[in-house]
Amino acid sequence: MTVHGALLAAGCLLLASVILLYNSRLPEMDAASISRAPASMPGQPSFVFNTRRGMVLVSIEYRIPAERTRDFVRAAQPLRRLRLRNGAERWSLFRDVSNPEVWQELFLVDNWIQHLRMLDRMTLADKIVIDNVTALHAGDGPPQIRHCVSYEASSYDTPLVKSATPPANDEAGATAGS
């Protein structure tokens, strides 16, 4: 094929694309749903560690009554997509074998800095997904949240530091990861 033939073929394909896509529409986005939600950051860690090294494990424990189990699992599917989209490497949902009302959402993030960025990325639409899951929680308080860092982030000779504020347990929504 000559250069002239290639340009003619490209022009024909461009014209065909315009004709085929003329009536199609892009999905409409609600600007409110992509607005940033206020980030709820975890409390000050109780020891010094390298924030750029070592994975972070976030564990959120929910208490879900038996009659809400199906709704919880259904609501957790968009939550999984949200966590993975916002930066989690892995995500899993576990049920306690000794107490079937206890569920744990676990996800891994590359490092502490990435986890904080994950929290900062949360939109109002993300907050709604998290609120839908949290609304099914039947515990006395908010879901229990734990942040664990890999041994790779820790320095074993670094002394523990007493922080003025303990790590927050009220950020189930913000760990969306956030």
Automatic annotation (TrEMBL):
Keywords for the protein's UniProt record, in alphabetical order: Cell membrane, Membrane, Transport
Short name of any one Pfam family annotated for the protein: MFS_3
Name of the featured protein: Transmembrane protein
Organism: Pseudomonas aeruginosa
